[in-house]
Amino acid sequence: MEQTTTHVIGINPEELTERIVERLVKRINRLAKNKNPESTPNYFTREEISKKLNVSCVTLYRWEKRGILKRRKIGGKIYYKLEEIEAILEQSIS
Fold first, then answer.
1. What pLDDT is recorded for position 58?
2. How far, in Å, CA of 42 to CA of 83, rounded?
3. Which residue in 17, 44, 48, 61 is deepest, having the highest Cβ count within 10 Å?
4. Where do the H-state alpha helices sit in 1-94?
5. Mind listing the pLDDT tens digit of every residue in the chain (94 residues)?
6. Are 85 and 28 in contact (CB under 8 A)?
7. What SS3 state is found at 34?
């Protein structure tokens, strides 16, 4: 994955966090609208969640270590519940 550097000028950390969370919530909501609830799996792999949220797997790992995100290990693979991620994101903006 190619890394890029983005410089943010004139914004404090709280505003940056709020903007990031808002974008993530919009993406999740857009994805949820395009899926039939009956066909949506409960668990997603680290790679799937990273693509859905447009964050790196390293970011997900950091969120796990900080206690922001809860992972489940099933058959040697890491999984996340989309509902829990959505709840965390909703709490972040309220």
1. 92
2. 8
3. 44
4. 13-33, 46-53, 57-65, 82-93
5. 677 777 667 888 888 888 888 888 888 877 767 655 444 468 889 998 888 888 899 988 998 998 888 898 888 888 898 888 888 777 777 6
6. yes
7. coil
- Per DSSP bridges, beta strands 77-81 and 43-45 are antiparallel
| CA neighbor of 69 nearest in space, from 85, 92, 52 | 85
Q: Do the beta carbons of residue 83 and residue 70 sit within 8 Å?
A: no
3-state secondary structure of 40: coil
Residue type, position 16, single letter: L
Fold of the domain built from segment(s) 13-93: Multidrug-efflux Transporter Regulator; Chain: A; Domain 2 (1.10.1660)
